[in-house]
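Hi U.,

Before I forget, here's the chain from the pilot set. I'm dumping it here mostly so it's searchable later in email.
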Amino acid sequence: MNDTICAISTAVGIGAISILRVSGNEAIDIVDKIFDKDLTKKRSHTINYGHIIEDGKIIDEVLVSIMKSPRSFTMEDVVEINSHGGIATTNKILELLLNNGARLAEPGEFTKRAFLNGRIDLIEAESIMDLINSKTESSRKLAINGVEGKISKLIKDIVDKLIMVNANIEVNIDYPEYEDIEIVTQKEIEKISKYINKELTKLLYESENGKIIKEGINTLILGKPNVGKSSILNKLINEEKAIVTDIAGTTRDIVEGQIRINGILLNIIDTAGIRKTEDTVEKIGVEKSIKLIDESDLIILVFNNNEKLTKEDIDLLIKTKNKKRIIVINKMDLESKIDFDTFKEEKIIKISALEDVEELKKEISDIFKLDELNNKDFTYLSNSRQISLVKKAVAKAKELEKALEDDIPIDILEIDIKEICEILNEIIGESYDDKLIDTLFSNFCLGK
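Structure:
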């Protein structure tokens, strides 16, 4: 990280302003070479008006911001050039920066430097990208809690308590003559073990909320051909997205749409009707529909009020019985031929998708408690890396409880406590694998 990097931080295209960011030991000197004012004598955190020049010719009229180390995002010298927007002008300034000693930044390299220099931890870094990608107000709130360090503080508090216990264990072992040091007993370790399990299990349980807020609810509309799946999709998203006809098998591939319910994104997939078919294209669509069952957070299982249940209907009930699902009886405006006794142990919703789907929306909100979700503090884990590590820590905490039951000596228990600390430190990036860090930041946008 001894070199100086630069990149365009705004979206490339026509706009009022473009921002080019430069970070590193030579950031001020490099920009000074192409600016018509002396930047080397300017104070930190100032905005300076002037022109970008090349061979004495004006390239653009700009504002240049200076943020000197360590009081910057990367904790290095950072210079930001606010130029007029537009592809030609922005690219020309970038070319001048590269020609005068800067290197083009890799995706996410500014945030990576902020992390490696201790400005932010790993959860905060991941939350910055979540903030950029947020599509709803709820996902924005979730991301900003991560950026502000609320989730990190929660993890660090647990780690601090564990470190304190381990420190006392080590003193007890190494300096038994010290009478003023608290003696750590099996009972003390049992107490901290229960605390860890309670806090981490709660964090894990609530992480499902974080995933929903961040990614939305992946919702699959499933059923036989011609039960009204496409009509339900169109009515939900208030758009004629899927083709609707009386011909069975019209939908041969998945059709997707999105809506927001109580500020949470619903990613809806209308699938090909499930039936045996000799049509090659339709057969592929049916296979895709079946595969999507396992990947979905919610199944909207649709049946036709105007038809008797078939073997395909019963098969779908069996295939989805362990999934979170809503059973919808559609076409209630037609003569009823369906056997409602089949659903006597199920909650069903009766609708006519041609008229209204508000009851279906309400049921989705009730199942996922979306009203409550929007009123919580959004201090959740929200990505698979963080969640998998917490699961690992919970498993290790359970091993610690088992060891306590088996009267394992305290100096051996210390090893388990250290392992839990190491796992939790991985979440916030106190310990990390270089390849993991490179992969994580490579998913960031260029210039961030």
